[in-house]
Write a structure and sequence with these properties.
The structure holds two protein chains of two kinds. Among the domains of chain A are: 76 residues, no CATH class; 112 residues; 127 residues, no CATH class. Chain A contains 20 helices and no strands. The longest helix of chain A is centred in the first third of the chain and has 59 residues. Chain B is an all-alpha fold. Chain B has a domain of 89 residues. Classes of the chains: A mainly alpha, B mainly alpha.
């Protein structure tokens, strides 16, 4: 009612000319700002809430002396109401977007914005100090507890060397059972202490439980891999991917610096282009022009441009493959460039790819491997390199599948490239890595990423007509 | 690209060596697939040439194999010796695999080799001695 009275007075016309009314209104406005009307208006409900709490408290107190059951119900309701109020105050304080705002939460948030930065500077050292103090105290307690059994041992030795006189009383049954009791206590202390996080600091394990001697015969423990991302990680990945897509597109369209272009082309072969929909327009033409600029008129790679050609064709094939995953029509918007012509069909991988593509085998991995297996005996460097890439890819991605191991052994017995001088070194290294994988050695993904020429593997996701670009 | 010139060759080869060492069967072990490792070693032994540092790696394998005496490990030992030393010709002066690291277990290797009595394997073993002093054939000793 008070608030309504105040507002009515503010809106009331004082009469007179327009200029006088304007002057009067301006004076009221200035007074309203000078006297914080909004604070008083907002404090009225707070007073009502306080009055309600006081009334509830008084009612509870009164009912305690009248009826205990009714009093219990009232106290429960009062406590629930107070907890609810504190809950909405905390919620309103924690977030500005929270709709349950109260004057208290607004004031608390303002206070936190002023005081919070100072507290956040002071609190962590205090917490660290308390934590250190806690650790020191625990260490001391544990040391005292651990010394007790040794004191008992010393006492036992003393009693052995100084047996009680005949005149002394014989030990009571309780004293006789004491050593056994101590043994039990000691074993329990040790059991607890060894599980304690501070046990390494106290060197407990070395003191009481001798670890097994290290042997060179222990095989390395297999790495446990968790292939699943948490929703939080996935959301972060998608956000980073979106920013990467924008960044790469902008650099490739606007920057001419070669180093920036190389970095962008590298990234273009890894980001997921159509994750947000098919409306994304990759800088495909720019990447193709980068790729084509790596070759001279005779379609040979310029010296020193091999890496750029590799990363750009990887990006091209990656974009094409991702587009093909969406739709065939979308893939046609990103046609593959043509570099070089195939002289003889047997040297070309196209027919091998077509074998894979037209195979009716529903097992994709078997189709993939059958292409490796059909490589002619008079294979050139590209065939060997390509086959080794596929083998590495299969061995890594399907290493849990026993059939892959079986196929690999078949391949090894059929094709033995013994003259290392005549095959690409990368193929040999791929073979090494495949062996490592099958022998159970953990292979770091970074090593694979360097070795894996995944653009060749990507050819399988579409019907490549010009796969001679490697 | 000329053969064996890559900054990735040595680390990947070392990793392969570690994988082979870990896969060498253990006496009273839990039944490792025993035929993959001989097959791999056989594949390597069939190469016409191999990087020089394979000599030291193969010698390390010999030590571990002798440390773990099993039925299959004798064949692995001979294959390792073949990989490390059979293709070498110290007279050309280009052998530079570095000093070999002798361990206590290599003593057992000599017993096994001479007990076998195969001339090729004995020759491989003799190469391990000369392999430790590659300049011997150049008249510097």
């Amino acid at each position: 009612m008070l608030g309504k009275q105040w507002l009515n007075r503010y809106l009331r016309h004082a009469g007179g000319s327009t200029i006088e009314r304007c002057g009067d209104r301006q004076r009221k406005l200035e007074g309203l700002e000078r006297w914080p009307l909004h604070t008083f208006v907002e404090s009225l409900p707070v007073m009502l809430q306080i009055a309600l709490v006081l009334l509830a408290c008084g009612l509870c107190r009164h009912m305690t002396s009248v009826n205990a059951r009714v009093s219990g119900v009232l106290m429960t309701l009062t406590v629930l109401g107070i907890l609810f109020y504190f809950g909405i105050v905390i919620a309103g304080t924690s977030s500005y977007e929270c709709p349950f705002q109260t004057p208290a939460s607004t004031n608390l948030r303002g206070l936190w914005e002023k005081v919070g930065p100072r507290i956040t500077v002071v609190v962590p050292p205090i917490i660290d100090a308390l934590h250190s103090l806690w650790e020191i105290t625990l260490c001391k307690i544990l040391r005292i507890m651990l010394r007790l059994p040794f004191k008992l041992d010393v006492w036992r030795c003393f009693r052995r060397s100084h047996p009680p006189d005949a005149g002394e009383d014989s030990p009571t049954p309780l004293l006789a059972a004491l050593p056994k009791l101590w043994e039990n206590i000691r074993s329990k202390i040790l059991r607890v202490a060894l599980r304690f996080p501070l046990a390494p600091n106290l060197n407990l394990r070395n003191r009481f439980c001798r670890p097994p001697l290290p042997t060179t015969q222990d095989p390395p423990a297999p790495q446990e891999m968790d292939p699943w991302s948490t929703p939080k990680d996935l959301a972060a990945f998608l956000m980073n991917n979106t920013s990467d897509v924008r960044c790469v597109s902008w650099i490739l369209r606007n920057i001419t610096d070669p180093e920036a272009l190389d970095a962008a082309v590298r990234l273009a072969g890894t980001v997921r282009w159509f994750e947000e929909g098919i409306d994304v327009e990759p800088p495909y033409d720019a990447i193709v022009s980068v790729f084509e600029s790596c070759f001279d008129s005779t379609k040979k790679v310029y010296p020193g441009m091999r890496d750029r050609a590799y990363y750009s064709i990887r990006a091209i094939l990656w974009i094409h493959a991702l587009a093909k995953c969406k739709s065939r029509e979308l893939a046609q918007m990103f046609p593959l460039p043509v570099i070089g012509e195939v002289e003889t069909p047997t040297d070309d991988l196209t027919h091998l790819l077509s074998v894979c593509f037209h195979s009716m085998d529903p097992d994709y991995n078997h189709r993939l491997f059958s292409v490796v297996y059909t490589i002619p005996h008079e294979a050139n460097h590209a065939h060997v390199q390509w086959a080794s890439n596929l083998l590495l890819h299969l061995a890594w991605t399907e290493r849990g599948d026993p059939r892959i191991f079986h196929w690999f052994c078949e391949y090894e017995t059929t094709y033995r490239y013994n003259d290392l001088d005549t095959i690409p070194l990368d193929a040999t290294l791929n073979r090494f890595l495949v062996w490592c994988i099958f022998l159970g050695s953990p292979v770091e993904e970074e090593v694979l990423r360097i070795q894996d020429k995944s653009y060749v593997i990507s050819c399988f996701f579409f019907q490549a007509t010009h796969a001679t670009v490697y | 690209m000329p053969p064996f010139i890559s900054d990735r060759l040595r680390p990947i080869s070392d990793q392969l060596s570690q994988a082979i060492i870990a896969a060498i069967p253990i006496p009273e072990g839990d039944g490792h697939d025993g035929w993959l490792l001989p097959d791999i070693l056989h594949s390597i032994s069939m190469w016409k040439s191999r990087p020089p540092f394979f000599m030291g790696m193969a010698y390390d394998w010999c030590s571990v194999i002798c440390e773990r005496p099993t039925d299959i490990n004798e064949a692995l030992l001979f294959l390792s010796l073949e990989i490390g030393f059979r293709h070498l010709d110290f007279r050309d002066g280009k052998v530079g695999g570095g000093r070999l690291t002798h361990t206590e277990h290599h003593h057992k290797m000599f017993d096994v080799v001479f007990k076998k009595g195969d001339s090729e394997v004995v020759a491989d073993l003799l190469h391990t001695w000369t392999g430790n002093y590659p300049h011997y054939w150049q008249g510097q000793y």
